[in-house]
Amino acid sequence: MTKFDESWELHRLMELKSYEILDTEREPAFDQITSLASVICGTPIAVISLLDAQRQWFKSAVGLDATETPRCVSFCDHAIRQDGIMEISDATSDPRFSGNPLVIDAPYIRFYAGAPLISPNGHALGTLCVIDDKPGSLSEKQKASLMHLAEQVVAQMELRKKNLELTAAKRKLEDQQELLINKAKLQTIGELTGGICHQISNPLTIIVGRAMMLRLRLKEKDVASKEEIMSELDVIDQTVNRVSSVLKALKTYSKDMGEEVTECHLEDLVEDSLLLMKSRMDKIEVDIDTEKRLKIKVNKNQLTQVILNVIGNSVEALENHGNKQISVSAWSDDKHAYLDIKDNGPGIKNTDAQNVFVPFFSTKPLHFGIGLSNAKAYLEQNQGKLLLLKEQGPTTFRIQIPKAS
C-alpha cells in the first residue's frame, strides 16, 4: 500500500474520523503549538491543517482567519504524500503552485513548509505548516523543531481521543449503574408490594366493616346517638389516613425524580421508609430517636432507597433471631446530618465486613448484592458517606449527608 492509492486514502480518512476532531472548537493545547511554530520559524502564519475528503480544515491557525479551504488548492495535500517536511521557497517559481488562487490572491503564499502529522498507524492526517508572503527557507534546526512540534500535535490528538474514549466509557458505566439502581429499586418495590397490600387490605376491611355496620343500623332504624356515629366515623377517618399515608410514601418512592435535588426533613424520609417497611418489621421492636426538623438537601427518592437498603439489611440480619430490635437515630453537627441504623442481630463476620460494600457481594442466595454498594456510591457522589461502625455484635450503619445551607 502506498500513499497514492485509494485504499490508503480510505484508511487515512477513516482514522481521521476516529479522532472526532473535525469542526470542533479551538483548544489552547493546539493554539500554543501553532504560536510556537510561528515564532521558531519566523513566519506570520502557522496552521494545523487536517485533510478531509474534499477540504482542509484548520484546527488551529495563527495569522489566518479562514477555518478551511478546498482540498484541491491545498499545499498540505501535497505535503502528506511525501516523507519529512515539504518546503517551497517561492511558490511563484514552482509550476505546481504558481497558478494557485492562494498564491495569486490572499494570503499570497510565497514560502511554505509543512511537516506531516503521522498517526501511530502510519497515516498522514494533515500537517503542521508555516507560511509567509515572502520567499524564504528554514534552517536545519527550524526543520527539526517543526517536526518535533508536529509530533506534539499528534500526541495532543491522541490524548484528546483517549479523553473522549474515557468520557464515553464513564458515561456507559453511569448508564449501567443507573440500570442497576433501577433494577434494585424494582426489586425493593417487589419485596414491599406484598406487605403494602397487607397494610392496605386490613384497613379497608375495617372501613368496609364500620360502614356496613352504620348502614345496617340506619336500615333497621336503630337509633344511634350522635356520639356513637361520630366515633364510628372517626375510626373510618383514621383508617383512611393510615391508607393514605402508605400510598403517599409509596408514590414518593416510586416517582422518577431523575437528578432532582430538593430540601426536605430527614425525619420525613425516615418515617416514609419505616412505613414502607412496616409489614416486614411487624415482629421487630423499633426505637426511633430523630432530631426534629433536621433539614437536608438531597434527591429524596434516592436517599429513601438508601435508607430502605440499610433497614432491609438489618431486617434480614434479624431473620432467625429471637428478640428482634432495630434502633434508628438522627442528629447533626454544624455541617452534616447523621442517621444511625442499628440492629441487635448476630453482626457481620470479619471476613464479610471488608466486602459488604462490594458490588454483587451477598451472603444471601438469590440476591443482587448491589443494595449497600449502590447506597454507598450514591452518598459518596453527593458528598456523603455510608459507614459500617461495628462488625461483630450489634451492627450499626451510619449515613452521613450534608445539611442544607
From TrEMBL:
The keyword Coiled coil applies. PANTHER family: GAF DOMAIN-CONTAINING PROTEIN (PTHR43102:SF2), SLR1143 PROTEIN (PTHR43102). The keyword Coiled coil applies. It catalyses: ATP + protein L-histidine = ADP + protein N-phospho-L-histidine. PROSITE patterns: HIS_KIN. One of its GO terms (molecular function) is phosphorelay sensor kinase activity. The lineage of its organism: Bacteria, Pseudomonadati, Bdellovibrionota, Bacteriovoracia, Bacteriovoracales. This is histidine kinase. Keywords: Coiled coil, Kinase, Phosphoprotein, Transferase. InterPro entries: GAF (IPR003018), GAF-like_dom_sf (IPR029016), HATPase_C_sf (IPR036890), HATPase_dom (IPR003594), His_kinase_dom (IPR005467), HisK_dim/P_dom (IPR003661), HisK_dim/P_sf (IPR036097), Sig_transdc_His_kin-like_C (IPR004358). It comes from the Bacteria. Residues 147-183 form a coiled coil. Residues 195-405 form the Histidine kinase domain. Its EC number is 2.7.13.3.
